[in-house]
Design brief:
Layout (H helix, E strand, L loop, with lengths): L14 H5 L4 H11 L13 E5 L6 H13 L3 E3 L11 H18 L3 E6 L1 H12 L4 E7 L13 H7 L9 H8 L6 E5 L19 E5 L11 H19 L1
């Protein structure tokens, strides 16, 4: 049964899982150490990649993953929009222009990798500019199920000066359908911030779900996620060569 049509409510991750997010302080140094050696992973040939950070994060948070992917031979860019506090008209215009510039410069489509809320943005960028996007890879992104099944709402309220959230359920349900490009959702069942069921793509010809082990905060610094990303990128390279 498609996740979006499940009758049973999806609960936010438990307090125990939320506390397990502290694992990120062990996951980051381990990732930095192991990602220095990437000989066993498939390599790229300079194809463009943009990584979009999650809510409250910036390009500083995605730097270790960008470095690892550069070591694999890709041309990797941040989103260059500072801290992600939600989609704004200025941010949307800048990202639209950046995708076009990358397409013109590399004469190739860009792979978008989005962590958490950044994956929601990446999917919508691909929906509106499929001619510029090769593929979307999401990392623990709330793209399905119940928009309330997470522990992020408090952060949203704080960022919006305590204003109550106004969830556009109709718009959310429309966005559940994947954009018209290949989409891969990487998720962990021990996610302490987003219910893992909500991080899955609906089954379709252009979608796939990959499970890894770790925390939500650590998905950017997860060796299994890096290996999965490298494999997906290698498939994208072979597809474009056909």
């Amino acid at each position: 049964m498609p996740i979006a049509s499940m009758e049973e409510p999806i609960a936010a991750p438990s307090l125990a899982l939320l506390l397990l997010e502290l694992r990120v302080f062990m996951e980051l140094p381990r990732f930095v150490a192991t990602s220095l050696s990437v000989e066993n992973l498939p390599r790229g040939k300079g194809q463009p990649i943009m990584i979009v950070p999650g809510f409250g994060a910036s390009d500083l948070n995605t730097a270790p993953l960008r470095l690892a992917l550069r070591r694999l031979g890709y041309s990797v860019f941040g989103w260059n929009q500072g801290v992600n506090v939600g989609m704004r008209p200025r941010v949307k215009q800048a990202l639209t222009a950046e995708l076009r510039e990358l397409r013109d410069h590399y004469e190739d489509k860009t792979t978008l990798i989005g962590w958490s809320l950044g994956g929601v943005f990446a999917r919508e960028m691909a929906r509106h500019q499929p001619e510029c996007v090769r593929r979307v890879i999401t990392l623990g992104s709330p793209i399905n199920g119940d928009p309330e099944a997470n522990n992020l709402n408090t952060l949203f309220r704080l960022a919006n000066l305590g204003k109550p959230l106004k969830t556009d359920l109709e718009g959310f349900r429309r966005r559940v359908v994947a954009p018209p490009v290949p989409c891969v959702a990487i998720h962990t069942k021990t996610d302490g911030l987003v219910a893992w069921q909500c991080s899955l793509e609906e089954p379709a010809e252009n979608t796939r779900n990959i499970e890894v082990h770790g925390s939500h905060m650590g998905l950017l610094y997860n060796a299994q996620a890096l290996a999965a990303i490298a494999g997906v990128l290698a498939e994208a390279s072979s597809d474009s060569a056909e």
